[in-house]
Amino acid sequence: MEEKLASLFQALADPSRLRMIELLRKQEWTVGMIATQLGISQPQTSKHLRILHDAGLVTVTVDANRRRYALKPQALEPLDAWRTYIARETARLDRLETFLAESQREENGPHEYD
User: Fold this and answer.
1) 45 part of a folded domain
2) Does 17 reside within a domain?
3) How many distinct structural domains can be found in the chain?
4) Rg of the chain taking only CA atoms, in angstroms
5) Rounded CA gap, 20 and 25, in Å?
6) Distances in Å between the alpha carbon of 75 and those of 57, 67, 78, 111?
7) Is the pTM of this model over 0.70?
8) pLDDT digits (tens), the chain, 114 positions
């Protein structure tokens, strides 16, 4: 799981690849369409799509001399698990912070100005 998550984070770390994921969330796109939409070269687009494909985030369908890319939504599921983990750990840390603050107040006792 950790290796898969690291691969996803690494693939999504680049802003151009994130923009590609946003495009692919709605429909299939060819390399040329993505390059035009994002204003980057086709070779650069192909490189980014290969990284997304290797990370398991997109599928590719060959249609004559075109390659159509589509998002694999299930590939993003580990990110949901990560988000749940982060939310749970944040809540635990918040409870710890509250506990420590209350303990500190109790330890210091009442002040003359209270």
Assistant:
1) yes
2) yes
3) 2
4) 23
5) 9
6) 5, 20, 7, 56
7) no
8) 567 777 788 888 899 999 999 999 999 999 999 999 999 999 999 999 999 999 999 999 998 888 999 999 887 776 666 666 667 778 788 888 888 888 888 877 765 555
Domain hosting residue 90, numbered range: 76-108
Alpha helices per DSSP H over 1-114: 2-12, 15-26, 31-38, 42-54, 77-108
Query: Among 43, 54, 45, which residue's Cα sits nearest to residue 17?
Result: 45
Same domain for 68 and 91, yes or no, is no
114: in domain: no
The amino acid at 62: V
Same domain for 6 and 24?
yes
Digit-coded pLDDT (tens) for 80-110: 666 666 677 787 888 888 888 888 888 777 6
- What CA–CA distance (Å, rounded) separates 49 from 42? 10
The answer to whether 52 touches 21, Cβ cutoff 8 Å, is: yes
